[in-house]
Every structure is written in C-alpha cells, then in structure tokens.
C-alpha cells in the first residue's frame, strides 16, 4: 500500500490553511480552577464515559465495493478530503492525550475528559485512515507526528479555537449528512452514512470547551475577550471559506454548492457560538460574504502563482498585490461591528 506522501512530498508543506498541530502551556493548564462549573464537568464526564459511539465506527459490506468507478479527478478530491480530515482528527488526539497525561495528578476530572476525547479523536482518525486504504493509500500518522511543526497557543486561545473547531465540525458533518439523506444518489462513498452519530462526538467536545470557558469568566466578560472572540470567529470562518473555495469541485461531486454550504455552516456556527461568546459576527451585513469572496479569489491567485516555475524573487513581487488585498479585506471583516450575543439569543429563542 502506497503512502500518501513522503518526506519530500509537497503535501507535507505547512501553510496557513493546513490542519495544524498544537501545543500549550501545560503548567498553566494544570493550575486551572474549574470550581465555578464543577457540576457541568461531572455531567460531561458521565456523557463521555457512556461512549455512545463505541459500536458506531464499524465498516459494513458496502466498504468492500470497488471505487474504481469514481473519476480520477473525483477520487483525488475525495482522498484529499479524507487526508485533511484524518490529519485534523489526529491533531486533536495528540493534544488531548498529552493534556490528559499532564493533568492526571492535578485535575483528575479534566484529565479523564481529555483522555476520553482523545479516544474519540483516535477512533475518527483511524476510521478515516482505513477509508484512505480503500484507495490503496495510507496516511503515515507516525511520520506526521514527527514531521509537523507544533503551533503554541496559550490555554485561553486553545479554548476559543478548539471550541469553534469542534462546533464548526459538527455543523459541517450534519449539513453534509442531511443533504445526502435527501439526495442519496450523491453519496459517492459509504463513510458519509456515519456522519450523523459522528458529529455528536464533535458536539460533545464543543460542549466541553464551552464548559471550560464558562469556568474562566475572565475569558468571556471583558472588552479584551470580546476582541479575541471576534478574532477567532473571523479566523475559523475565513479559513474554512478559503479552503472550501479551493475545493468547490469536491462539494460539487456530492451535489453541494461550496459557497452556499459554507454560508449555512457559518450561520449555524455563529448562532451556536453566541450561546457562549459575548459577541457574534454580523454575517447578515452584505459586505461580510462579499469580502470573504474577495479573500478566496485572492488566495486562489496565490495558489496559482505557487504552481508556476518563476524564481522566488519574481514570485514574491507578483504575490504582493494579492496579499495586500487579502489582508486588507480580512481587516475590514474584523472591523465590521459585531452583535451582542444577548440579542442573537433572544432572536432564536
């Protein structure tokens, strides 16, 4: 079975939009006081211990079918989707596993929660890697562990970013599942049938990080926290939008319009985040998605320039206008006044 990459493969190259591996201040994490929200953590731990998906990730006979009927282009798009998803899940496993180990003596409740979440992430990554195997490829997770650079985030940034990534993961999975439930002819591979239960793991993980944020009110109840929440909302939404713009053909292969799909996922995630974050983004303002479209088109130009054989200096100067416009529009997105979450919550009650 062929590995999907080697040490010299360009796929290993890090970019701002690739799934990242994270590390944090474990000493600060070990001193975390969660006494403001202990009962919710105990309830979440009970949920994790129940392991509702213990028998869910079992491959059925449909996986034995040959997928040679997929076109070459569709197959490549789908394998890339599996690779990115597997890498993201494995990244979560590594972080949660290490947090569990570091917190075992100082905070056993959090340690067990992280341990059981790492179990879920490992299960997801393994299931995805088996799917990659159906295409006679494999993702070398051991090589990934050693080769990837680890991005340091302070605990509060881990809480913001991971809460959003888990919640947006829920809405991405459930939106695809519901679409394919209505249009089964677009279900090109059986893994999509597993998304309904699968996304409940993402939802529970998001609830855990919401509980962590609630246990640390200083991360939610002041001006600085509002600015950080806005930053992470913009970052997570823009990253998804730019990534999916590049891969619109993949979504087309399963009967989805990438832009409409992202708009729905962003809307739902924005609503979910408003239940925890003090602010939500004003995504109904016409310029919000218009600026995301500009960012996506400029990012596509940067990708095309990377593919050319120009020398590095020439390529750098050709990229400057695209970088400038992309950066300017991201700043302008950030400057769109947010909406107080209390208003959003009243609207959707």
From TrEMBL:
The keyword Electron transport does not apply. One of its GO terms (cellular component) is chloroplast. It comes from the Eukaryota. Its main location: plastid. Residues 80-213 form the Rubrerythrin diiron-binding domain. GO terms for molecular function: iron ion binding; magnesium-protoporphyrin IX monomethyl ester (oxidative) cyclase activity. GO terms for biological process: light-independent chlorophyll biosynthetic process; photosynthesis. It catalyses: Mg-protoporphyrin IX 13-monomethyl ester + 3 NADPH + 3 O2 + 2 H(+) = 3,8-divinyl protochlorophyllide a + 3 NADP(+) + 5 H2O. Pathway: Porphyrin-containing compound metabolism; chlorophyll biosynthesis (light-independent). Signal peptide: none annotated. Its cofactor is Fe cation. Its EC number is 1.14.13.81. It is found in: Plastid, Chloroplast. Keywords: Chlorophyll biosynthesis, Chloroplast, Iron, Metal-binding, NADP, Oxidoreductase, Photosynthesis, Plastid. The keyword Plastid applies. PANTHER family: MAGNESIUM-PROTOPORPHYRIN IX MONOMETHYL ESTER [OXIDATIVE] CYCLASE, CHLOROPLASTIC (PTHR31053:SF2). Belongs to the AcsF family. NCBIfam families: AcsF, PRK13654.1. Catalyzes the formation of the isocyclic ring in chlorophyll biosynthesis. Mediates the cyclase reaction, which results in the formation of divinylprotochlorophyllide (Pchlide) characteristic of all chlorophylls from magnesium-protoporphyrin IX 13-monomethyl ester (MgPMME). This is Magnesium-protoporphyrin IX monomethyl ester [oxidative] cyclase. The gene is acsF.
């Amino acid at each position: 079975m062929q590995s999907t990459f080697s040490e010299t493969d360009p796929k290993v190259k890090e970019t701002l939009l690739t799934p990242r591996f994270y590390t944090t201040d474990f000493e600060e994490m070990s001193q975390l006081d969660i006494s403001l929200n202990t009962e919710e953590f105990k309830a979440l731990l009970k949920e994790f211990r129940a392991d509702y998906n213990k028998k869910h990730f079992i491959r059925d006979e449909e996986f034995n079918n040959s997928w040679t009927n997929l076109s070459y282009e569709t197959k490549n798009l789908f394998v890339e989707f599996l690779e990115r998803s597997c890498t993201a899940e494995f990244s979560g496993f590594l972080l949660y596993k290490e947090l569990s180990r570091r917190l075992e003596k100082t905070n056993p409740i959090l340690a067990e929660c992280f341990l059981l979440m790492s179990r879920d992430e490992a299960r997801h990554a393994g299931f995805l890697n088996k799917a990659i195997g159906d295409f006679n490829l494999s993702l070398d997770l051991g090589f990934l562990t050693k080769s990837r650079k680890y991005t340091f985030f302070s605990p509060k940034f881990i809480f913001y970013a991971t809460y959003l990534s888990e919640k947006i993961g829920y809405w991405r999975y459930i939106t695809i599942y519901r679409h394919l439930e209505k249009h089964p002819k677009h279900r090109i591979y059986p893994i999509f049938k597993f998304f309904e239960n699968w996304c409940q793991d993402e939802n529970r993980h998001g609830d855990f990080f919401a509980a962590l944020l609630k246990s640390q009110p200083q991360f939610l109840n002041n001006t600085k926290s509002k600015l950080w929440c806005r930053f992470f909302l913009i970052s997570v939404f823009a990253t998804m939008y730019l990534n999916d713009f590049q891969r619109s053909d993949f979504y087309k292969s399963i009967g989805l319009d990438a832009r409409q799909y992202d708009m729905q996922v962003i809307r739902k995630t924005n609503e979910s985040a408003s239940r925890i974050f003090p602010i939500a983004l004003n995504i109904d303002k016409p310029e919000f998605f218009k600026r995301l479209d500009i960012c996506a088109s400029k990012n596509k130009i940067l990708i095309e320039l990377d593919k050319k054989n120009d020398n590095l200096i020439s390529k750098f100067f050709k990229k400057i206008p695209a970088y400038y416009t992309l950066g300017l529009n991201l700043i302008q997105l950030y400057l769109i006044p947010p909406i107080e979450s209390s208003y959003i919550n009243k609207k959707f009650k």
